[in-house]
Design goal:
- The structure is a single chain.
- The chain contains 46 helices and two strands.
- A two-stranded antiparallel ribbon has the order 1-2.
- Helix 8 packs antiparallel against helix 9, helix 31 packs antiparallel against helix 32 and helix 38 runs parallel beside helix 40.
Length: 1011
């Protein structure tokens, strides 16, 4: 164990500094393995490109118990594909490498300062020569052009090093480390602050790469025999007791095992060499050259110690240990940088360097062992203890032979390894100029790299990235094709497919992804993209197959899962075949998934005619949204779809949408956000704001104006504003709008005006034609629905009750019966109304609409009879939200008629909150407020509702009276003129008399005041 942890016998200073340097080397090895494992992922990541797809949906259904009105709009499904990013260049990686190189430099120069004179001079010459090739002039420090900066650095570090070597060799390693580290830090800070160029660390690393490559390859060559040396130790160490002194008692693996193990190792290297040179195309299981490097550099910690101590060249404790860690750190970080930048020519060059050096030195070292130590092996003696004390030929001779063999192997490969090193150098310079935003220079260096190695992936992918940044899809496609020649990756196929899509070569894009899946059958990203493309065609089964296969094969499963929901929503036949797909969704915080789950819900309701009464889940991101940030596609779609799906009042989301819609960064979504605001405002009973937004949208968007007006018309119908609804539908020319206009006029009891529209709407619709025939007595009603329709809307037929009595369907009978009862109450025939209501079917058989209208009718009857207890009982019964305003109105009427003013005010105000535009509610509430000397409050109620009710005589009368109360005489006269058009001549004359009397009274009061 003492030989394993040899540093434990050292002094505290040496032990601490060596373990620190060893820790740094181990850290670099870990970074190297991480960068190696990530491969192309170090610089290219998978981005997600989202696309909005419009889908027609019915997001709301309005029913009056007889007719249903579908409020249609568009919803948004989000389809997503994986897109390979451009080649990312991170200058901070070069900065980290430069820091590591500086640490290695400190270790090396500290170690060299303890060498003897000759070794010191040679080593410092090599170090200074390497320093010279770092191209310091590229830092462009003012006043230090040419070689001045190099000379200053050489003098600074050289003089201090010589001082330690010649005058103070007694200084400990800790002092030397501290001084050189301080000098390095000061030099780095000074150069970084004085250099005007961007990314100075990257420019030093990029232009100094040849020096790093030479030092790294030299170190790899130096440790190339460590694995064979390790086999010597394994086969010559005593298996029972390493320290046994009697040879006869020793038990070793022996020479034959050494030869066999060495042969297996060398065969592995030969196979790698033959495969890399394309001499064979076997699918052999060979150890990676980089794994061999990791093994060699680890074994070298102990192997280099034996070499130093057995050759007695320098002190391992004072200098050799730090020389090794410095070189190991430099070589490891350089290779890690090659992987971190995906500079595959450098990676392949290092791979060849490891294979060539290990093969050449492996053969030479086996020969060295056989020539010098075969007799010792045969005596079962510990060869490793004298491995570097040869009896016949020196190790240096075999190193020279090994170097010659390496040169021969490189030449045999056509100097491809050398050209790869040059290509990697140019790639590094190309990266630097990309960070400088100088695409012309970057393009030139990448093309120089291609001249050296035209198939290298780094240059081709980088040039494709530059072409894409310039929107040159043709050039990008060419370079992506080139990138596929030697080292294809899924990202290359995805990038090539995307360029074909951008140039409308759809089938070429599909074929590219198919080729990619043949090469990478488990690439979930390519599977998702192919499913995405098939989803745009009629090949639904292939789309489903690939999207389903992608789930579980990607790091972001939510993307193909979200695409599956979008696929279901866009293919109604799939939902028809399996309706459970609409409900079998999971809880996910991914915005696109949430958006597609919501749109799938709306499509299912439209296609399957199956209402979903559950409350939709509010998107989680809304809790922490920053309104000044732009909405992503997924966030917008989830917000928009939630606004359409949610039927409950939500003030917070209304405020959020308003803030997002006015943010300049969301201008692409402005119209859709305004529509979402309108829906939210309508559901939270701010109908005035909702109608204003729809009018704004209809005026600003000629293409979709008809859709917005249709939505507004249906909402007006829902609010009982029938004449205003008819006026809104008048702007549309489609048959559906004409039908809705006919319905609106019919509900307004304008059968004569509605007839022509019924005629037009019924031409191509047998169902509408049937209603028209019944309504205008072209034939008698036969079905329960026709009888209920006739009994409800032919108010001029006193015998319509006979049809009502024959209706069998409970809900239809109830709705029609309520219409009859309301007609009787309008005529003050409350007993007849009571008889009708008492004859209605049991509530257990009724639809929610029928139950609600019956409850309202009973509540109205209670108000008519001034029965507070009955009214309060009926008001406590469950009722649909759209009828709650009427419920509070009739409860308020009951309180008002029984002189309970405070309760009446409370009920009216609740009703106004729910239906601020209802003329009946507004008039009653305003009149009560006026009686309580609150004319300004009452006036505000009326002014808000009047623009939508200029045909309401009662509301106009209230408006005129309130205008007089507030001395707004011009407004009063304007209201009087509108009243003349809205009411009968007799009613107008009666009100005019009252109006003139009040004017006269006001004038008299004014005259008395002036006197």
């Amino acid at each position: 164990m003492s030989s394993l942890f040899f540093w434990s016998a050292w002094g505290r200073t040496h032990r601490f500094t060596y373990l620190l340097s060893l820790f740094i080397v181990i850290s670099s090895l870990i970074l190297f393995v991480v960068a190696w494992a990530k491969g192309l992922g170090n610089v290219v990541n998978w981005d997600v490109l989202s696309e909005l797809n419009e889908l027609p949906v019915t997001f709301q259904t309005i029913s009056d118990g007889l007719l249903e009105y579908a409020v249609n709009s568009k919803a948004y499904a989000v389809s997503e594909q994986f897109v390979a990013s451009a080649m990312r260049i991170r200058p901070n990686v070069a900065t980290a490498l430069l820091v590591g190189i500086s640490v290695a430099f400190v270790l090396l120069i500290s170690a060299i300062s303890r060498f003897d004179r000759m070794r010191y001079l040679v080593s410092m010459a090599v170090l200074i020569l390497g320093l010279a090739f770092f191209r310091w002039e590229m830092l462009e420090i003012p006043g230090l052009g040419g070689n001045y900066l190099f000379l200053i650095l050489t003098f600074l570090f050289g003089s201090v090093s010589y001082y330690f070597h010649a005058f103070r060799p007694d200084y400990s390693i800790g002092v030397r480390f501290g001084v050189f580290a301080l000098l390095t830090i000061l030099a780095g800070v000074a150069l970084g602050s004085l250099s005007p160029v961007a990314f100075p660390a990257m420019i030093i690393v990029s232009y100094g790469m040849p020096v790093l490559l030479v030092f790294s390859i030299g170190f790899i060559f130096f440790i190339a025999a460590e694995i064979i040396a390790g086999l010597v130790w394994v086969t010559s160490v005593d298996r029972a007791e390493e320290g046994s002194a009697q040879a006869g008692q020793r038990r070793t693996l022996g020479f034959n095992n050494f030869l066999f193990a060495s042969l297996l190792y060398l065969v592995n290297l030969v196979l790698i060499w033959l495969k890399n040179t394309k001499s064979i195309d076997w699918d052999v299981l060979a150890i990676s050259p980089f794994a061999l490097y990791l093994i060699s550099v680890t074994l070298g910690v102990w192997g280099f110690r034996r070499l130093i101590e057995q050759q007695e060249a320098v002190s391992f404790r004072d200098s050799g240990a730090y020389l090794y860690t410095g070189l190991a750190l430099l070589a490891t970080l350089t290779m890690a940088y090659a992987f971190a930048t995906a500079n595959d020519p450098l990676v392949e060059m290092f791979e060849d360097a490891i294979v060539y050096t290990h093969l050449a030195m492996g053969l030479c070292f086996v020969t060295y062992v056989v020539i010098n130590f075969l007799p010792i092996y045969q005596q079962n003696l510990p060869v490793y203890r004298v491995l570097y004390k040869p009896r016949r030929l020196e190790l240096s001779l075999f190193r020279i032979v090994g170097f010659v063999v390496v040169v021969v192997l490189v030449a045999y490969g056509g100097l491809i390894s050398f050209r790869q090193g040059v290509a990697g150098y140019y790639n590094g310079l190309g990266d630097y100029y990309v960070t400088r935003n100088e695409p012309t220079s970057a393009n030139a260096f990448y093309n120089l790299a291609l001249e050296q190695e035209f198939q290298n992936h780094k240059s081709n992918y980088s040039l494709a990235s530059l072409a894409l940044s310039q929107n040159n899809q043709t050039a990008a496609a060419f370079y992506f094709q080139q990138a596929l020649l030697k080292q294809p990756n899924p990202q290359d196929y995805a990038g090539l497919s995307q360029t074909y899509l951008q140039t409308d070569l759809f089938f070429e894009a599909v074929k590219t992804l198919q080729r990619g899946l043949r090469a990478f059958p488990n690439s979930g990203e390519l599977q998702n993209n192919l499913g995405y493309l098939y989803a745009r065609t009629s090949v639904a089964d292939s789309a489903y197959y690939y999207l389903k296969a992608a789930t579980g094969n990607v790091s972001r499963d939510e993307v193909p899962e979200s695409n599956l929901l979008a696929f279901y929503a866009r293919n109604a036949n799939v939902l028809t075949a399996d309706s459970s797909l609409a409900t079998n969704t999971t809880k996910s915080t991914y915005e696109s998934y949430q958006a597609n789950a919501l749109v799938l819900r709306m499509v299912a309701q439209s296609q399957l005619k199956r209402a979903d009464t559950t409350q939709p889940v509010k998107p989680a991101w809304l809790r922490d949204v920053a309104v000044d940030q732009g909405l992503s596609v997924g966030r917008f779609a989830s917000l928009y779809n939630y606004a359409l799906t949610n039927q409950q009042p939500d003030t917070s989301i209304a405020r959020t949408i308003k803030e997002l819609s006015v943010a300049p960064v969301n201008q692409d979504f402005t119209d859709d956000l305004l529509l979402a605001r309108a829906v939210i405002d309508y559901n939270r009973h701010d109908q005035l704001e909702a109608f204003g937004l729809l009018d704004q949208l209809a005026e600003g968007d000629q293409q979709n104006g008809a859709s917005y007006r249709s939505m507004a018309g249906l909402w007006l119908l829902d609010q009982g504003l029938y004449r205003r609804a008819a006026e809104t539908f008048e702007y549309n020319s489609d048959t559906t709008s004409i039908y809705y206009r006919a319905v609106a006029l019919t509900k307004a009891n304008e059968l004569a005006l509605a007839q022509s529209f019924w005629e037009t709407a019924s031409k191509n619709d047998p169902a509408v034609a049937s209603l028209k025939q019944v309504l205008y007595r072209e034939r008698k009603p036969t079905s329960d629905f026709e009888k209920a329709f006739y009994a409800t809307y032919r108010l001029d037929d006193p015998n319509r009750g006979a049809y009502w009595e024959t209706i069998q369907e409970p809900s239809l009978k109830t709705v029609a019966g309520v219409a009859l009862a309301n007609d009787y109450l309008d005529q003050l025939q409350w007993r007849n109304a009571q008889l009708i209501l008492s004859g209605l079917p049991d509530s257990k058989q009724l639809s929610p609409v029928a139950v609600s209208v019956r409850t309202i009718a009973a509540l109205r009857l209670s108000a008519f009879r001034r029965s507070v207890g009955s009214a309060e009982t009926m008001a406590g019964k469950p009722i649909l939200p759209r009828y709650q305003a009427e419920e509070q109105y009739w409860l308020g009427q009951t309180y008002e008629r029984t002189r309970q003013v405070d309760k009446a005010q409370q009920a009216y105000r609740k009703a106004l909150q729910l239906a601020p535009l209802n003329p009946q509610i507004v008039s009653a509430a305003a009149q009560l407020e006026r009686s309580q000397k609150q004319s300004k409050t009452a006036y505000d109620f009326v002014v808000k509702a009047l623009p939508y009710n200029e045909d309401s005589p009662e509301l106009l009368k209230t408006y005129v009276n309130l205008s007089l109360d507030l001395s707004l005489f011009d407004y009063a006269e304007d209201g009087l003129a509108k009243l003349q058009l809205a009411t009968t001549p007799a009613d107008y004359q009666a009100f005019l008399t009252t109006y003139q009397e009040k004017i006269a009274s006001i004038e008299n009061s004014r005259q008395k005041f002036l006197q």
